Amino acid sequence: MKKQFIPSIILNDKKAVKSFFDKTVISENPVELAVSYNDANCDAIIVFDQSTDDKSHEDSLDILKEICSKTDVPVIGAGNVKRMEDVKKLLYAGCKMAALNFSKAENAEILEEVSKKFGKDKIVISYADTAESRKIVADNAAAINELASLMIFMPESAAVDGLNSNAGFAEKLVSNPVVPEEGVKDIPHIVYLDNPESDLSNLKGGALAVLFSDQVCAITGSALSANAQNINDLRKFAIEAGIDVQTFEAKYKWEDFKLDSNGMVPVVVQDYRTDQVLMVAYMNEEAYNATLRTGKMTYFSRSRNELWEKGDTSGHFQYVKSLTADCDLDTILAKVKQIGAACHTGSYSCFFNEIAKKDYTEKNPQKVLDSVYNVIADRKVNPREGSYTNYLFDKGLDKILKKCGEEATEITIAAKNANGNEIVYEMADYLYHMMVLMVEKGVSWEDVTDELARR
C-alpha cells in the first residue's frame, strides 16, 4: 500500500480555521489554500465542513466546488452529512469521495443507501477514537467492509500529544500504536493528526511512524496541513526511512535512454489540458530522478551548467502529469500543469514566433468549442447590434431555455430521417444554444469536461 500525504481544510464561516477545536483563521480564502496544497505536491485534500445551518452549508458547497475545479488532486468532502442528499451534493460539487461520520449513529443507517446509489468507491467512513464511535463502527463492520472503500481515523488528542516530542511520539507508537477498530482493519485508513503547532522536525521525528502501520495508507490533519509546503521534504524523508510512499514510478531507468553527445535527453513540454506545446529543455540523470521524486519538472541548464527546477526563482512551476518516451527512447514528452508562464519572455508558451501559416479549418473539437464559447461570452460583455446571440441574452433565461428545448426536439426529428447531414446540422444548432445557456449560467466547458472525466 503506497503511503500518501493528504492535507486537510476545515471550513468555518467561509474561512479555513486552525483545527476542530481552535477557530483561529488561517486563511480568508480556502480556495487559494487548497491550490497551495495542490501545488505543494500533495496526494489529495480533505475538506471538512463545519457549517451549522443550511445557508452556511450552501456557502461551503460553493467553496468546495471551486476547490475541486481549481485543483488536480482528489478531494474528499466531509462534515455536515446527514442524508443521501448531502452525499450527492458533495459528489456533484466535484468531490472524488464523500465521508460519513460514524461518530453519529444515524449515519450508519444511510450507508447502504448511499453506497448502492453512488458506489462503494465514493464512500469514506470517518470515526473517532472514542468508545461510542468505535462501537458504531464495530456494530456495522460487516456493512462497512462491503459498502465503503476508505476510512478516516481520528485518534484522541492524547494519542498525538507526543507530536511535540519526537522520541516520545515514536516510542509511544511502538509500545501502543494507533490501532483502527479490529473489524475494519483491512480497509485502508487515513489517520488524522490534530496538532497545528507541530513543526517539520516533529513530523519527521514522530508522526511519520504512523505510516509504518499496515492499516494506514495516509496521514492528514492540522499537523500535516501546517507543514504542507514541505510535503516533498516529508516524502523524501519517508523514503529514506524505508516507508513505501506514493511517488512517480518510472518504467524506464535512466540507462534505458539513448543520450545525446552531452549525456542528456531533450524534453518536449505540453500543457496537460490543452496539449499546447510550452517549451523544450534537457534532462540529465540527476534532473530525471529529481523530477520523478518531487513531481516538479527539473532540467539541466546547458548554458549555466547546473540543475534547474522550473519555477524555482519565478514561481512558474511545472507539475508533472505524465512522462512518455518516444519510439527510440531518445526524447521525453512531458504533460504538465503550468503555473504562470512557461517562457522567460512572459509568454505562456515559448512558441509564438510565427514563421509561415496556411489558412485551414480547425479540426480539434475542444479548440472549436472553446472558440465558439469565447465568442458568445464576448458578445455578452461587448454587445453587437444585430447579433442573434445578443438577442437571446436580451430576452433572458426563459427564451434561451425555450430555444434549447426546441433544438433538442429538432435533433430527435432529424435522427428519424435518412439524411445524415440533417442531424449534424441540428446538433450544431443545439450545441450553439447550449453554449449560450452555459455563458448565461456561468458554466464553462472545463466544468463540463471535468465532470465527464470524473465519471
UniProtKB/TrEMBL annotation:
Residues 279-352 form the Phosphoribosyl-AMP cyclohydrolase domain. GO terms for biological process: L-histidine biosynthetic process. It comes from the Bacteria. SUPFAM superfamilies: all-alpha NTP pyrophosphatases, HisI-like, Ribulose-phoshate binding barrel. InterPro entries: Aldolase_TIM (IPR013785), His_biosynth (IPR006062), His_synth_HisIE (IPR023019), HisE (IPR008179), PRA-CH (IPR026660), PRib-ATP_PPHydrolase-like (IPR021130), PRib_AMP_CycHydrolase_dom (IPR002496), PRib_AMP_CycHydrolase_sf (IPR038019). It holds the Pfam family PRA-PH. Residues 1-368 are annotated as: Phosphoribosyl-AMP cyclohydrolase. Its EC number is 3.5.4.19, 3.6.1.31. Transmembrane segments: none annotated. GO terms for molecular function: ATP binding; phosphoribosyl-AMP cyclohydrolase activity; phosphoribosyl-ATP diphosphatase activity. Gene3D superfamilies: Aldolase class I, MazG-like, Phosphoribosyl-AMP cyclohydrolase. This is Histidine biosynthesis bifunctional protein HisIE. The gene is hisI.
